[in-house]
Every structure is written in structure tokens, then in C-alpha cells.
């Protein structure tokens, strides 16, 4: 009952293995080429003036100072809005939410929100914060929009972190007469802190790389000033990069590459820290 | 001895409930915002022409409001991305799961995750400034803005989405099934593709659906490298515009609020939202339905 | 829900018993886990609950400090009186009540905090912050738990660095630091080595003077060694409750006899 294969099974196995190594290599190779190409294009432009200059029409004089300032302010406001709401939601859903239909509904809702394209959040922010609430093209509108965007990430990672706390610790706390909130504050949160922190860092990394929703809510491409308050206009690093990428002059292309190097540095440091924290926290709770 | 009263416990609980409501309000907000202006849009534009007109020129003198050009741009780039990412992604997942030693996997997986962490504006730059010129050497009639280049780059970006979820699905297939196959003399390839992959197919399908959803919603890569001219075409060598690029393009311009042109953002947006919403929920449904199998 | 018992054959003198249970039924959803349990436990005694696994002894133990409230879908009928107060009917503040009853669990579950903070936890949640009071109470509790000498120099070290037996004694210290009058112990030595087990058993014997102790155990020799009275449970029912010597030498019920001699369970 042996079927004649076109290619014998041994050969199949071998060929697949080669193909698989090629595929894996492809992904890594592209990553490598991307990094090398960008570094080659932009590394020469990285100097002190690049960081301290305001954008200008002349590429050699253009810098990312305002973009960095805008990014920091934006991030600050985004986090102070998103973190309390997201973390408290995550704690509530995991510790208080009963296995009822409402809790399930909220869960599916959050999963959906995580899958909504970021431009749609931009449209929401445009209509709700920029127009209806009248915040205009301000940092506040951008921060609110980004906060909604990263909230599902914070909620999910908070839930995961809290879920990982063993029930035996909660039992011990209740047995001693602690209330629910006391148990959460004194036992659950300290243990889950590492996981929550990881979620915060990952969502920060996501936030700094977002471009599309910010464009829709009016972050400008050319901002030759440093924003001073939440109602000011602003730009951010990815948007500055986007703007430079869209210009034909070679000088701006170099600037874009240099800006990307800075952006990637931030991203890698944040993500690396998150992974390191996750590993350390994981070891701590599994002793 | 002061003690936190039962009343303050209740207050804290209510604060937390309010925070949880934010997520529901967000969804409601998205749906309401999109619907309201879309309905206003359709008061002026016939629904049929929205679906069937082959031109999208809301910002020009001769206005056409057919969504097909934008849809074709979106679908074209997405298809290219998926054609690259799915075979490669699944192959890598099977390889890591069935063939590769644990140490290898432990190193490779995080490296691939980096692909997912890179901001998309960086990919857009790469597509425009490196991939397109490179491809033009091979395909001389490749336009400066085209669908192929961003499509391929999107594909690379999406690989970790497929690999990660597929690998989880493969890993959750019980060892006993594999052992049965090996016990009958099957080799790794046969075991993988005749036993493990079919057993994990719901998880793999979910990963593909979610990858498609991600590709449909991608903005910056296509905004930078695909072009800003809506064109109804399935030729990847030409420039196209996606729904997402259009939304960004209009937002950057000076379109007066409450005008028909402004409302095109919402009509385009809701189209995109409907697609991704459907895909996401189908994937949740599949995941739920098949989760009981091995748990 | 309180059921009135019209067939009261004994009139029980007020204040004689520490724990009194009358016709207790417990349901997990529709499934009945405890049937018509009645038992009276005197103060300052050690009572052992024995029986095959799944017979409901742990579930019953948890009724005394209302830990079953934490599980969904649990229904309880009957009376559970502690110091002559029905804790299911008359109790408003469960949290306050739980401080009067200490619980030690099967697997030691110290908090990932320092040794000192573990024992001080119960005091802190009561709002106690005075350093001297905390120090005094922690030391006293650790001494009562026969752990003080081993940890007095490392109070700031993480509790997780202690051995299993030490961790369990720490959990006992933690429980008695809030000065409960009843100690519920759910197979406290089952995850420990024989030497640690012996230490715990000795500890229980000493603690008897200050606390009323109820201990669930699947180890019959342990029950025989340390308890004054023993209750035998089988499939959710209390089969026999009597002085330990009688249970183990001359039980009245066949089922008890069979269990003791190892014919089942």
C-alpha cells in the first residue's frame, strides 16, 4: 500500500529544512539590511547640532529638537491619562470581574479595540477631541488619542500580571481578615508590579512610534518652536521623519535616516528593558 | 486603630468600574463617530455609486466617489504582503517547533519579534529608499511609487505575527500525537504537515486572519511608498493609494470641516473598520470554538 | 438561611462550646457537598477531622471562617455558631470576623515579603503602625510558633528563603499574631518532611493552651497523636465524633472502623 511520492519523504524533509532555514534567514537578513542601510545613510548626520537644531528649510540646518520636545510632552500626557485608567481597568477586570456576561463583553471589546487600525483612532480623536471638545491640534488632543490607542495593551498586560499572582497568597491575606482592596494593594500589586511595568514600557514604545493617528489629529510636520503647554501645537519624531522622507532633496533623506537612528535607539532600549524586566519578574514569581 | 471602612472599599470599586467603562465608551465612540458622518456622506452620494464607481476623485473638479480604487489599492498591497508572510511565517513556525533545537529557537524568536517592534515609518522609509530602487534594477518599468515594494516590506513586518501565533498553536498540540506519528515511522516533515499542522490549523488560521487585519490597517508604509493617486488596478508595478493613505492625505490638507470632501474620510474609514472588525471577530470566534479541543 | 430544628433533644448550655454547628448543608451549585453536619467543639481542645479525600472535611473547615464565600455558587444552610453567634446570619463585617479565626493552609503560603512583614501583615491592615507594638507582637508570635530562635537575626530577609517547615511555622506565627481564639489548620504538615512535621505537631500541642484548634489531616497517626477528639467524615457526612482514643481503639460505627483499619480511603 505504498504510494509513490514525486519526491521521496527523505528528500522532502531535507528540502523543507533548507527552505525553512532560508525563510528564517530572509527575515533576519532583511532586518540586518534595513539597519545597515539606514545607519549608512544617516550616521554622518548625527552630531550635536542635529539634536539641538529646529527644523528648517535647509536640510543641513534642520534638527530634531522640536520633534524630541514634542515627543516627550506628548508621551508625558499620554501616560498620565492612559496609565491610571488602564491599570485600574485591568485590576478591576481581573480581580473583581465575575464570570458573567458583562465581563465577557468587556473582554471581547478590548480584544476588538486592540485590533482596530491606528488611523481609525485618529479619526475618533479628530472628531471627538480636536473638533467637538475644541482642543484643536493640541498636544492634549494627541495625547488623548494615543492614550485610547495604547489602553488595550496596558489593560491586557495588567490583567496577565495580576492573573499570575498565585491564589494561595490571596487566600492567606483573606484568612487574616484583609479586605479585597487591602489584599490587592498589599499583596497582589507588589507581586505583579514587574509585569505591569513591562506592559507600561511596551505601550510607551508603541506610542512613540505612532505616526498615522497623530497626523490625523493635526500634529504638524513643520513646527519651528517648542511646545510649552498641553494646548500648544506640536510635532513628534516619527512625523518629522515622515515629513523629511516625503521631500525629494537628498539632504532631507539623510536627515530622515538620522532621525530614524534616534527613533530606533529609543525603541530598542525601551523594548530591551521590557524584555529584561519580564525575565527578571518571571523568575521572581516562580520560585 | 484606624481601618479602611467598607464605604471607601465601595468608592474604590466604583472608580475602577468607571475606568473599565472607558473601553466600552471608546468602541461606542468609534462606531458613532464613523456612522454619523458616513450617513451624512450618503445623503449626498448614492450608495450604489460609492460601491461601483471606478474613480475616487473627491478633491478634484470632476468628483467621483467610488471606493473601488482605494479598496483595490488596499487589497493589492495586503495580498502581496500576505503572499510573502504566510508561507514564510508558517514555515518558520514549523521549523522552530519541530526541527530547531531549543537554544536556537530561544535566540531566533526574539530577533524576529524585533521586526514587529520597528515603527512603521521606518519600514516606509526603507521601502521607498532601498527596496524600490533595488527592485527597479530588476524590473525596469517599476514606478517610483508602486504597490510591490510596500507590499513586500509589509510582508516582512507581518512575519512575526504569523510565526508567533502559529508557533503557539503548534506547541499546544499534545506530544502524544507527534509520538504516535513518529512511532509509525514518519519523519519530521510528514509528522509536521500531516499531523501537527492539521491539528493546530485553527490557531494558524487565526494567525493569518489577524495578520491580514493588520496589513489592511497599515498606513505609513503605504503612505510613503505606494503613492497618493487612487487607481483601480491590480498591477503591483503601478502606484496605488490605500484607504489608510487617503485618510492621512486628506488630514494633512486644507479640507474645510463639514464639507463633503471632509466626510469622505469617514466613509473610507468605516469601510476599513468594517473589514477589520469582521476579520477580528471571525478570528475570536474561531479561537473560542476550537479552544476546547486541547484544554 | 436558618432552619429551625423542632427535634431538639439536648438543650445546650450557653457558653460551653466554642464552635457549634447544627444541620449544616453545603451545595456547590446543585451538587451537595456537606449533608446535615452537626458538631460541638469545646474551647482549648484539638479536634481532628479525618476521612478519605474528597469527603468534605476541608470544605467544612472553611465554613468556620467563611472562606467559602470566596467561591462562587456556594449555598449554605444550617447554623454555624462561634462563641454563640451565628456567623452566617448575624455577621455584617466578614473581614473583622476573620481576624478572630486564624487559618493555616496545606501548602505554606508566605507573602513574598520579609519575615517580619509577613507576621506584621495582619496588624498593619488593622492600622497598627507603631514600631514598638509591631516589634513586640511579631516577636511574641514567632516565639509562640517556635520559630523565633531560628529567625531572630534575619527578620528582614525574604520569607521565601526559609525551608518548607520554617515557612509553615511562619504562617502559623502570622496567623496567631492577630490574636485569634480559633486556629483552623488544613493539613498543615502534609507537604513537609517528617522532622518538620514533628515540630509542627509539638507546636500544636503547646498552642492548645491558648487556642481552640481544628485540624484537617489525612494522616491518622497524626490525628491519634495530637488530637483530643476526632471527627470522621465520609462523602459529606459526619459519621462519628468522639474522644480520639475511643475512635481509634473502639469506634462505634463500622464505617469508621473500616477507614481506620485501612479498608478504604
Oligomer: heterotrimer
What is the second-level CATH architecture of the domain at 43-57 and 94-260 in chain C?
Answer: 3-Layer(aba) Sandwich
What's the order of the H and E elements of chain C? EEEHEEHEHHHHEHEHEEHH
CATH fold name of the domain at 43-57 and 94-260 in chain C: Rossmann fold
Distance between the termini of chain C: 33 Å
Poorly predicted tracts of residues of chain A: none
What is the count of DSSP helices of chain C, taking H or I runs of 4+ residues?
10
Number of helices of chain A: 11
Greatest interface: A-B, 85 and 81 residues
Proportion of beta-strand residues of chain C? 15-25%
CATH architecture annotation of the largest domain in chain A: Orthogonal Bundle
CATH superfamily of the largest domain in chain A: MetI-like
The rounded distance between the terminal residues' Cα atoms of chain A is 54 Å
Q: Share of helix among residues of chain A?
A: over 70%
What spatial form of chain C do the alpha-carbon principal axes imply?
Answer: globular
Structural class of chain A: mainly alpha
The percent of residues in helical segments of chain C reads 25-40%
Give your account of this protein's structure.
- The complex is a heterotrimer of chains A (287), B (295) and C (265).
- Helices cover 75% and strands 0% of the residues of chain A.
- Chain A is mostly helical.
- Chain A folds into two domains: 9-45; 49-285, Orthogonal Bundle (MetI-like fold).
- In chain A, helix 3 (65-96) crosses helix 10 and helix 8 packs antiparallel against helix 11 (250-285).
- Chain A is globular, with a radius of gyration of 24 Å.
- Chain B has 295 residues and is mainly alpha-helical.
- Chain B has a single domain, classed as MetI-like fold, CATH 1.10.3720.
- Chain B has helices at 6-44, 47-52, 68-99, 102-117, 120-138, 148-171, 175-183, 188-199, 201-216, 220-225, 243-252, 260-291.
- Chain B is globular.
- The model of chain B has no long low-confidence stretch (mean pLDDT 89).
- Chain C is of the alpha/beta class.
- Chain C has a domain at 43-57 and 94-260: 3-Layer(aba) Sandwich (Rossmann fold).
- Helices cover 32% and strands 24% of the residues of chain C.
- In chain C, the strands form two sheets. A six-stranded mixed beta sheet of chain C has the order 6-7-8-3-9-10. In chain C, strands 2-1-4-5 form a four-stranded antiparallel beta sheet, with no helix packed on it.
- In chain C, strand 4 (74-82) and strand 5 (85-86) form a beta hairpin.
- The longest helix of chain C has 14 residues, at 131-144.
- At the B-C interface, loops of B face loops of C.
